[in-house]
Design a protein that fits this description.
The chain is an alpha+beta fold. The chain has nine helices and eleven strands. The structure holds adenosine-5'-triphosphate and pantoate.
Length: 303
């Protein structure tokens, strides 16, 4: 019994949290906002064997970029364990993470959603796609590692989240663009969990208005301008980020900030790719990622 699935990394440029305390169902919580999914992300392999003499009933290993915790994966696994009797089974879970963890690239949601699809395939549970998405969304919101990333990476592309919630409840509007390149530079992580717990209540005005503005313009350059405005508003801009933003702006290149990480991204026409890379390569303390939009969203991979 095996399953393999991929979920793209997702970057949020601005958002409005929906965490109404009276609303207890995790699937109704989430965020509105806008962002995009990229070609890199998380591939998860699940192998289910007999338990035999293992002490625990699962093992989670990570290839590529590493993480400090695995609570998001454990939440997803536990939801699937409720669907049947698997006492004599051993779940071998391997995440292959091709983007740095904690830098605003939605690695935790890509972990959750790729695992949810892979478990459905391995167990042959045949859940409908929205239910698979819901399990991953609930894991993210429960662990406070994200609010809208699962909904967004479920659909892929450059998206506006117009209604918050898990897949099947929340809705997105996809915006089509010319063929663009996405180049990012990542410096250091910012904990989304810490931000949601400590700062979220202070920041809930601007994101909703920006959603409406982007629905009008449907323009990726406008999206980036608003992302910079939002980053200043929530006060996450560091001097290092500001320096890059200034240099790109002086060269007529649009850019935005990935929430939440010390990460600057630039969505540009493909012809401008080298110009951006030349500028970013001077900053040797950052990790540069070159990508394109993933328009498909999370999916099972046929092995
Ligand atoms: N299986 C897992 N793999 C990776 N991270 C996990 C896992 N389970 C829980 N996490 C937690 O998620 C954190 C990363 O989430 P965080 O939200 O901070 O960053 P991100 O998902 O990379 O980016 P974003 O800011 O866009 O959400 C890790 O530091 C870790 O504590
Ligand atoms: C809270 C958040 C910015 C963290 O990545 C994201 O999940 C979102 O846009 O809801």
């Amino acid at each position: 019994m095996e399953g393999v699935a991929f979920c793209p990394a997702h970057i949020t440029g601005f958002f409005k949290a929906h965490l109404d305390n009276k609303q207890k169902d995790l699937e109704n919580l989430g965020s509105m906002g806008a962002g995009f999914s990229i070609k890199q992300g998380v591939t998860t392999r699940v192998k289910i064997d007999e338990k035999n003499n293992h002490n625990s009933n699962f093992r989670i290993t990570t290839k590529g970029y590493q993480s400090d915790k695995t609570d998001v994966s454990e939440f997803v696994l536990n939801e699937f364990l409720k669907t049947g009797n698997f006492e004599d089974k051993f779940f071998n879970i391997e995440h292959e993470i091709s983007i740095p963890v904690g830098y605003g690239l939605g690695s935790s949601s890509a972990v959750a959603l790729s695992l949810s699809f892979a478990l459905d395939q391995a167990l042959d549970t045949k859940l409908d796609k929205n239910t698979i998405g819901k399990i991953a969304h609930n894991a993210e919101v429960n662990c406070k590692t994200g609010l809208g990333d699962v909904l967004a990476s479920f659909h892929g592309g450059f998206e506006i989240r117009v209604k918050p919630g898990a897949p099947g409840i929340g809705t997105v509007k996809k915006i089509s663009t010319e063929k663009i390149s996405i180049i990012m530079i990542c410096f250091s992580p910012i904990s989304t969990n810490k931000f949601i717990k400590e700062r979220l209540s202070q920041i809930n005005g601007l994101g909703g208005k920006m959603v409406n503005r982007l629905l009008e313009s449907k323009d990726y350059e406008h999206f980036q301008d608003m992302s910079l405005e939002f980053a200043e508003y929530v006060d996450v801009m560091t001097p290092r980020m500001q320096k890059i933003v200034d240099e790109l702006t002086q060269n007529n290149i649009k850019c935005g900030i990935a929430l939440f990480g010390e990460t600057v991204f630039s969505m540009i026409p493909q012809k401008d790719e080298n110009k951006v890379l030349e500028i970013l390569q001077e900053y040797s303390d950052g990790v540069i990622i070159k990508s394109e939009l993933d328009d498909i969203g999370a999916r099972v991979l046929n092995n």
